[in-house]
Amino acid sequence: MTAELGHFALVAAFVLAAVQMSVPLWGAAKGDLGLMELARTTAIGQFLLIILSFAALVNAFVVSDFSVLNVVQNSHSTKPLLYKISGAWGNHEGSLLLWVLILALFGAMVAAFGRNLPPSLRARTLSVQAMIAFGFMAFMIFTSNPFDRSLPAPADGQGLNPLLQDPGLAFHPPFLYFGYVGLSIAFSFAVAALIEGKVDAAWACWVRPWTLAAWCGLTVGIGLGSWWAYYELGWGGFWFWDPVENASFIPWLCATALLHSAIVVEKRDALKSWTILLAIIAFSMSLLGTFLVRSGVLTSVHAFATDPERGVFILALLGVAIGGSLTLYAIRAPALQAGGLFQPISREGGLLLNNLFLSAAAGTVLLGTLYPLFLDVLDAGKVSVGPPYFNATFGPLMAPVLVAMVIGPFLSWKRADLGHALIRLWMALAAAAIAIALVLIYSGVKGVLPALGVGAAVWIIVGTLVEFADRIKLGRAPLGESVRRLRRQPRSAYGMTTAHIGVGLVVAGVLGATVFKTESIQVMRPGDTVVVAGYGFTLDRVEDIRGANYVAERAVFRLSSDGVEFAAVNAERRNYPVERQQTTEAGIHTTWFADLYAVVGEGDSRNGWTTRIYHNPLVPWIWLGTIVMAIGGAISLTDRRLRIGAPTTRRAKGAASNDGPVPAGAD
After folding, report:
1. Which of 237-251, 288-302, 442-456, 571-585 has the lowest mean pLDDT?
2. Radius of gyration, alpha carbons of the chain
3. Looking at residues 581-590, what average pLDDT do you find?
4. Fewer CB near the last or first residue (10 Å), C or N of the chain?
5. CA–CA separation, 575 vs 163, rounded Å?
6. What distances in angstroms separate CA 144 from CA 69, 85, 339, one per listed residue?
């Protein structure tokens, strides 16, 4: 009965979405406040109905209701409770319901907290949001119903993919979808603004907090996914440029560009047409990722195995959403006023440079992801575009972004002096130069690219700290005045500084994990020792263990340095009898400056076991930096100006004098 209740709530939400996407839009065109107000009540009602539907699905998984086909195919009575719950969204149908739930959540938040929005803009925004929800709910109801019955009910289920039975993958989809789907609000604001023909500073200020919230969720989701791939797949890496990984990374790049572009619209009334286009493209890339994961065109550990007929439905939905919005943009964008003028060397110029290279990087990743698919469709042969292509193209495109993100905050609006900004950054330049020299002298790594990468990380972290110190006049004014200026800084300034430091940590971690990694593969027997990067890995024993729903071989490695034992790690090779699949669990000891990483493969007591040993310098900084970036975004969200959604019209005093510049994203 609970499943029928969930299905009924989903159908009711579908009907409500049909009302929300049409009636308020008509009311906005006619100037009828009563009809426009209907957008708020229907958005909240739709959210409550989908919560009920989602709760019914989760309940079916928790109680192991095997009369529901979805539970049969993705659960088992012996699964731990956490994975019974996460199994609700660890499949095609359930993940779509989670997708729509988050979509409705953002619509309800705009309805509840967007009272300061002009009624017509709010009504149109919520109507566009409902159009997206209507399309996805139609997809679920007619092709992917999560409440289909399996009668007669089997005695037990088929279980969940063992790769998904992990804490990282349990929480990865909700965060990732929060980012994916959260970009729909920026899209809806953009389409609503095009319908109204008005884009101004107020619009930019309203769209920024929603985009920032989605960006934070997407950042955490991508970080959790890479962390899972690092310790669960047992290959010693964290990112393989897998097409489904790219499908989440491309919207993140577009959302980052959108956040910075919206600042220019808010502060200088410039780049309006470009910002609208970015809002459309960012969500369009999210829809493209949804298509890639569910269409059956990709084979990936991240993809849902579904039939191509469902992919045709999503492709049609993709064409309507992207094609319709871009057509509207082509018609209405030329009428948008150009806004304020600025010189190339200026705060606006720095943010525009940031946008151009971020967009080019997103385009490069998109091309590398789709090119093999295009060739396959044209029957022109099969090719594989892997890490060599992405490493050769993505890095050089991001290098100017890393340079500009430090210099930009020192530039004033409209016109600036680049030389003066570099002089004020002498400490960051010196620190980066010293780091480059030390790497070249002591690391033994040939070539300048690794050294330049380390220099870039130091440049970002030190330059960001120098900017914040300059903002409060640390060392240039009495300490009491600096403390007072510190207290008066807006929270968005703290958030920007924190997020940029996080970027520097991620850059350092990526360099350490890719360039300076040490690897050793061999066959080991109990008592054997392998030395990697000065650390001894001794295989102590291999034992059989039994988990809640698996059996495993566990290899115990004892770690030592200079002959002194200091830790032990357990690496496992698990077998899941119900699913008939195996997984690898890496044994990892972290010092926060490096990971000591061990994996056990096939073998026996007579011939030994295949083992892989890694020393990964700085790799923990990748996830530390990701967390710091998300915290920075969350801090910015608490800024009163973003929460109220009212545009700031005053010019920052420091921007005119260059004594305390207002950084990108801080005001």
Report:
1. 288-302
2. 26
3. 91
4. N
5. 11
6. 11, 19, 46
- CATH architecture, domain 1-165: Up-down Bundle (1.20)
pLDDT on residue 308: 60
Q: How far apart are the first and last CA of the chain?
A: 52
Given a cut of 90, whether residue 12 has pLDDT beyond it is yes
Of 626, 623, 629, the residue nearest 595 (C-alpha):
623
Does an H or E element contain 584, and which? strand 581-585
From the list 92, 104, 90, 230, the residue with the least C-alpha distance to 171 is 90
Q: Name 524's bridge partners.
A: 609
**Nearest CA among 354, 655, 632, 362 for reference residue 500:** 632
Per-residue pLDDT tens digits for 470-523: 999 998 889 999 999 999 999 999 999 999 999 999 999 998 888 889 999 999
Domain positions in the chain are 1-165, 390-515+620-657, 518-617
Helix (H, G, I), strand (E, B) or coil at 552: strand
Which residues have a Cβ under 8 Å from the Cβ of 591 and sit 6 or more positions away?
A: none
- CA 243 distance to own-chain centroid: 14
Q: Please state the φ and ψ torsions of residue 490, each to the nearest 5 degrees.
A: -65, 155
Tell me the three state secondary structure of residue 645: coil
Q: Parallel, antiparallel, or unpaired for β 608-617 and 594-604?
A: antiparallel
Q: Quote the crossing angle between the two packed helices 201-232 and 167-196, to the nearest 10°.
A: 160
Question: What single letter denotes the amino acid at residue 613?
Answer: I
- Backbone angles phi and psi of 477, in degrees to 5: -150, 160
Compute the average pLDDT of residues 345-369: 94
Q: What H or E segment, with its residue span, contains residue 510?
A: helix 491-514
Helix (H) or strand (E) holding 300: none
DSSP code, position 68 = B
pLDDT-based confidence at residue 654 (cuts at 50, 70, 90) = very low
pLDDT digits (tens, 9 = 90+) for 171-213: 888 999 999 899 999 999 999 999 998 888 889 988 999 999 9
Nearest to 284 by CA among 261, 264, 258: 258
d(CA 415, CA 347): 8
Task: Using the structure block, give the residue that is written with the tokens 């008509």.
Answer: 26
- In this structure, are residues 289 and 302 in contact, taking their beta carbons and an 8 Å threshold? no
Q: What share of the chain is helix, strand, coil (3-state, %, to 5)?
A: 65, 10, 25
Length reported for the chain: 667
For 592-648, how does the pLDDT look when each residue is reduced to its tens digit (9 = 90+)?
Answer: 899 999 999 999 888 999 999 999 999 999 999 999 999 999 999 998 766 544 444
How far is 431 from 512, CA to CA, in rounded Å? 18
What is the distance between the alpha carbons of residues 37 and 396, in angstroms, rounded to a whole number?
A: 49
